[in-house]
Every structure is written in C-alpha cells, then in structure tokens.
Amino acid sequence: MRQVFQSASMSSMAIDRRTVLLGTLSAIALARFGGPTAIAADTLQAAFVSAARMPDGSYAILLLAADGNVLRQVPLNARGHDIALHRATGRAVAFARRPGTFAVAFDSASAREPAVFNAIEGRHFYGHGAFSSDGRLLYVSENDIANGRGVIGLYDVDAGYKRIGEHPSHGVGPHEIILLSDGRTLAIANGGIDTVPEAGRAMLNLDEMQPNLAFADAESGALIARHELSADLNRLSIRHIAADANGAVWFGGQWEGDPEATPELIGRATRDTPIRLIAPATALGGDLKGYIGSVAVACDGGMIAASAPKAGRIIYVNTADGAVVDNSPLPDGCGVAGEEHARFCVTSGLGAFRHEAPGTRILSERVLEGIAFDNHLRRL
Amino acid sequence: MGARAQVWKQACFCAALVVCCLAGPASGAISDNTQRVSNILEKLVIPGFERLESSAAQLAPAVRGWCATHNGAADKKKSAAKAEKKAFAALTAAFRETASAWGGVEFLRFGPLAAKGRRERFAFWPDPRGVVARQLRQILAAKNPALLESGALAKQSAAVQGLPALEFLIVPPEDPSGKKAASTQSREQADEKQAAADAEGEVYRCQLAGAVADNLAALAHEIREAWTQDGGYRQIMLEAGPDHKIYKSDAESAGDLVRSLLTGLQVISETQVKPRVRGAPTQTVKSAKPEKKPSGPFVRIKAESAYFVGATRGLKALYDGLDMEASLAPDKQWMKSWAAGAWRAILWSDGVGGAVKGVHAGAAPSRREVAGRINGLRQLIGREMANAAGIPIGFNELDGD
Fold it and tell me: Which pLDDT band, with edges at 50, 70 and 90, does B121 fall under?
C-alpha cells in the first residue's frame, strides 16, 4: 500500500462536516496514543522530515523527497514538534510539543513499525531531543512538573527507549538540545518558561523568567558553562539553537516582554564566550514580531537561517561576522534545514516547500495544498 | 533577488486573487478590514475596557466597606453580623462584576494588555504552583506598611497585584497546615495575646486588600487610557499601512483580532473546560499539595461562572464583529448553522457544569460537548472563515513554540 502525496493531486484543504464532527469527538482524547502505524514504504530516498497537519486536520510526521514529494507518513494522534535524528543508523524520534507526553520512534530509512513511548509520571516533553554520537542514547528535554525544574531525560535506545535516568538541564523550560561536534557536549536552550499540562500551554512564570544557554557534559550531565542574558533581556526566551562550523551555538529567541521593547532575537555564544546578539544596522527584532520559530545551519556551517513565521520572514546570518545577509519573505514560514553550498530548504504552515540560497534566488518552490508544515524541518 | 521578488509578487497577486474570489460572491460582507477593525473597537474593545475600568473602580470602596464591618470581634452583635454579611455580599458582587468584565476583554492579549505585563498583573492566572498564596503569606507575615502606600504594589510581583490576590485576601484558603489563614473560629479559641495578634493581622489583611483593589482600579484606568488616548492603541490599529511600525496592512490589524478570538477560545477550553471533563486524560502533579491543584479561576469567591460567561459573551461579540460568515462561499454556507449550534452550546454553559440563567438546567451542555464545540469552531474559524474573510492566519504564526 503506497501513499504518495503530490501537490497536483492533493485534496482540497476544505473542512467538511465530517471533519469537524471527528475533530469534535476526538478533542478530548488526544493525549494518549491508540498506536500509530507507518503508512507504506517507498524505495525513493527521503531527504527531509517534518511534523505537519494534514488536509483532514489530523497530524503526522512526513518523510519527503528532495523535491517535496511526500514519500511516507507516520500518523500522530496529536500535534508533533521536532524530530531527533541519528543519520548513521536512520533512527528518528518525533516528539509531542510542549507540554505533550508522547514520542514516536521510527526508522527514517525503512517502514518498520514505529514505537511509541511516553514521558514518565511527573514529566512532560518540550518537543525536542538529540541522539548520542553512537546513537545508543537519546537525550530529551523535559520538565520536572512538580518542581518546575528542567531535566534532560536519558533513554536507552536498544532497550526500546527505556528511560534510564536524567540530568539537570541547568535551567527552567529546556527546549531544543543539540549534541556538539565533539560528541561529548550538549548545548541546551533553557527557554526559562514553566508549563504544567493541567494549565495547557499557559506560560506560568513570565514575571520570573531566567532563560539561559547551557553547555553540559553529555555523559555526566555536569555543567560546563551557562550563559544568561542581562536583566533587561530576561524575557527573551532562548528556544532554538544550531552550531556553526567554529563551534559557536546560535540561537533564536522569543520575546515575552513589552512589544515596544523587543530586542534583537538572534545571538550566539560559545562555551567560553558570553552571549552576543546580532547588531544589524536597522533594528530587526520588532519587525520580526518578537518571534523566531526555528534555527538551522547550512552544511558548511557558514550561514544560519532563522525563521520568523509571525512576520513571514526567513533571516539569513553570516556566522563569521553576524551580518544579516538576507531577509526572505515566506508567509508563515517556519521549518528551516541547511543544505550543501550554503543553501536551505524552508517550509511553511501554508504548505510551501522551497529551496533557496540566501542573497541570490529561490531555487525551486512548490505548495503541498492542504498540508501545514509544523515548526521544524530536518534534513535526513 | 530579482527572481525571488518576481515569485513573491506573483504569490501576493495569487493570494489576493484567491481572497477576492472567495469573498466576491458573498453579499453583505465587510470588504474593508479597517471598517471591520473600527466596528469592533467601538462596539466591543473600547466599551469592554471602559466596563473594566468602571467595575474595578467599585472594588476599593466595597473592600473598605466590608473591612469597616469586619473587625474580627468574636462577640459580634447580631446587627453587626448582619451588616458584615451585607457588606460582604456587596464586595463579592463587585468582584463578580469585575471578573465578568475581565473575562470580556482578557483575550485581547495584544497592545495595551501585552505591554508592561498588564495582563498578568491584572490576573495572575492560571497559577497551578500556588505563587499567589505563597507570596501573599510572606507579605501578611511581614506586615510591611510600605506596601500599603499608593502605587507601591504596582512595583511588586504580578502575583500579588491582581484579582487572584484580592480573592485570596477576601476569602482565605486553607493554609498548608489545614487551618484557615485567619478565621473567626480560630480566634474564638485563642488566648488574649493571640487574639490581639490575629486582630492586627486582620487589619493588615484588610488594608492590603484595599491596596490591591486600588491597584486594580489604577491598572484598569491605565489600560483604558492606553487604548483611547491620543496616539493610543485604537489609533494605532486604525492607521495600518506599509510604513506603520506594527501593522503593515489592515489585514494585519484584523489578524490580531482573529488571533485573539482563536486564542481566547483555546484558553477557556484548556484551562476551564477540558481539565474537568470526566475521563479526560490528565497528568497530575503528584506531589502537589491540595492548594496547588489547578482549579478554575475565582472559585473560592464564587466568581468563576461570571468570568466564564463574560469571556464567552465577549468572544461571541468578537466573532460577530469580525463578520466572517458573510464571506463564506455558497458551498460553505453550512458552516453558519454549525457555528450557530456551537455558539449556542458554549453560551448556554455557565462554565461550572450548569446552564446560564434563562436556560433550562436540563439543557445545559456537558463539558465534553462544550470542549468539542470549541475545538470544531476553532477549526472552522482558523482554517476556513478567516481565509474567506481575507484575514488568513498561519498555522505556525498562530500557535508555534
């Protein structure tokens, strides 16, 4: 059974009565899984993966060819967020978004039956995770709900993603975590935002936010360095990160403070140097509506892309000097993934799937009608 | 860049064409988003914040009226007790009115409510970690007179500034040891020294409640002014244009109103309706003490329903003001009747498991139905109606992470 979506044959995104009714009936029962299954395999090579909302309102993980054709989908019972990848083994894990509690492990190279695992009692996920360099461990950003303390959950992949322990995240509200190229250091974006599932997605501590970018030993969890923002920037939630060729970690933030005081949203730090925000000639943070949804680095590590879906913009920054080299319009654009030759693949909530090279041109673009690509796009 | 500009131009043209085609055939639709925004500002937003200002202004006199009768004397005469009861009823009525007015505007979380932390300061809720109680207990224990001075509370944590703080001071919850924070019962059994300390504590509690009420009145006034003053947010929303600092088009200013509607519906569903649906999956905070368990807003002072009904009526008024149904294509007309049924269920609910006044109790929709209707309505508005009305709201821009 093969199910390949192509833009020309996609059904309309229109909602019919049945869809609304189904949505109504399932509204309460979204939090737990009924057991997802991968729909069909394909011999074509998948090049990208992203969470998405489908034309009928359901949610799925989509594996896409380089031209945007959907090769395979892994259905989800609720909205997903990011996907952790281990390229050498093809292992992949998609996470529920904050404050969800499910994760779905699947194989990016085959249609093997996905496996679902859940956050343990008292923890919820923040939507992101990272594999160890050998692919045997999975690190997951989680919340110790009772104490409002960020933790990194440790999962044994070979034991069926059994949770074997946790490290502190060294902050509140850990969001994206990445393993740096040394294979030993985790960079952790502690967004500073406290959430509990009972209060939905409400941010509970805006008054007391203290985001940071932490570097920790992946094996022991020990803190190596923690960079905080100055007091006037403590409402800049550090959420999404990517490492450049020189080991600097770039982040995209979300401003939860006074809109008129919106700072620059993009910055970087290394283990040994504190956070520096970009300093474009014309202030950019306000124009980006205080919100960066995703950050990715090109394969050569020389350029980062930061998406600003509320402003409908993709910002490109040269990692060598922090200069903004392009500001590309893409309505509701959010997913960004680096490619070779300083190119990027970008997706939108309006179904756009585009390859572009910052500063020059759109290389190709298509719209997968009815599909809303979610926050993050990953290159396989 | 030239090719990109060309593609972008074509995309904009196509989007505009689609919008025109969708909206074109309908009759009676508001074609101008500026007019749409203006109507909502004048009929809902400004009157809503004026109502909040006038209702919040009634809180301080009501608090002080109650405090004058609430002297903590255990041997209160019958007439004094009656006076206190009457003053308490007046106070809770004033609180309910303010909670209702707050529900009617709280979902307008952009502009003046987003600035200076005003939304959290007016109502620090949800508060599953019991921050309001913890911080107020510390303040009550310290009895710092400086906090009673005019404007002092506005510089404190948001948790001690707003309606939940006032509720705590008027109707104290059980403290962690199981005793009432300060109750008449405990005073009856206390020795003279303890009774004096309690009386002193009661005086401070009342004074602090008055200061919180003053703060709420000042905040509500400040918010209303931020909307209506010369150069205020009303004006900002109506002057959308390519060079505008916030709104590059009138679709963007209208977009803030659609987002408010969608977010407002989501918030009442996630925080008030869904958590109480029987059998709904939840993950409880295992070690949470009773006072930390999440509950609806203003439960102890019995103003939860007033808040909920204020919110649902405000959201319906916003839905009506956006007038998106008029832009629906002929094959989408069924959405009108579906939405009417959904709104009927939502508006008939009192938010606490029953029906609003005037609706037969037996007709009260279940919480499960209300949650389901809200979910369906959000889908229709976000994915169909807003597009049809030329105010498309992106999937990620509405609710990313």
Answer: very high
How far is residue B393's CA from residue B371's CA, in Å, rounded to a whole number? 22
B353-390 burial: b if 16+ Cβ within 10 Å, else e: eeebeebeeeebbebbbbbbbbbbbbbbbbbbbbbbbb
| DSSP codes of every residue in B329-393 | -GGGTHHHHHHHHHHHHHHHB-SSSSB-TTS-GGGPPPHHHHHHHHHHHHHHIIIIIHHHTT---
Structure tokens at B294: 């999440």
**pLDDT at residue B329, rounded to an integer:** 96
Q: Distance between CA atoms of B385 and B392, rounded to whole angstroms?
A: 9
CA dist A140 → A118, A195, B102 (Å): 11, 16, 39
Dist. CA B148–CA B204, nearest whole Å: 9
Across the beta sheet with A59-64, what order do the strands follow?
A: A70-76, A59-64, A48-53, A372-379
In this complex, the residue of B334, B396, B397 whose CB is nearest that of residue A17 is B334
- Give the per-residue pLDDT at B76: 65
Mean pLDDT over residues B73-93, rounded? Answer: 85
Q: Indicate yes or no: CB of B285 within 8 angstroms of CB of A145.
A: yes
Q: Find out whether A316 and A308 touch, Cβ atoms under 8 Å.
A: no
The dihedrals phi and psi of B245, each to the nearest 5 degrees, come to: -70, -25
- List the domain boundaries for chain B: 24-37+237-275+296-399, 52-235
Interface of A with B in 240-259 (CB under 8 A): 257-259
Mutate to test the interface with A, among B118, B397, B398 (most CBs of A within 10 A): B397
Please give, rounded to a whole number of angstroms, the shortest distance from the CA of A215 to a CA of chain B: 22
pLDDT band with cut points at 50, 70 and 90 for residue B400: confident
Shortest distance, CA A49 to any CA of chain B (angstroms): 17
Average pLDDT, chain A: 89
Which ipTM was obtained for this model? 0.84
Distance, CA of B278 to CA of B269 (rounded, Å):
14
Average pLDDT, integer, range A224-231: 96
What are the structural domains of chain A? Answer: 7-379 (2.130.10.10)
Tokens read off for B288: 């949470």
CA distance B34 to B22: 19
Task: Tell the residue number behind the tokens 């996920």, with chain if given.
Answer: A125
Token pair in block for residue B57: 């202004």
Q: Residue B219, SS3?
A: helix
Which residue has 């590059």 as its token pair? B248
CATH number of B52-235: 1.20.1420.20
Residue-wise pLDDT tens digits, B45-69: 999 999 999 999 999 999 999 999 9
> Which candidate from B128, B245, B379 shows the least CB-CB separation from A196?
B128
Exposure b/e, B269-291, CB count within 10 A at least 16 = b? bbbbbbbbbeebeebebeebeee
> In the 3-class helix/strand/coil scheme, how is B38-83 assigned residue by residue?
HHHHHHHHHHHHHHHHHHHHCHHHHHHHHHHHCCCCCCCCHHHHHH
Provide, rounded to the nearest whole percent, the portion of chain A with pLDDT above 90: 82
The pLDDT of residue B176 is above 60: no
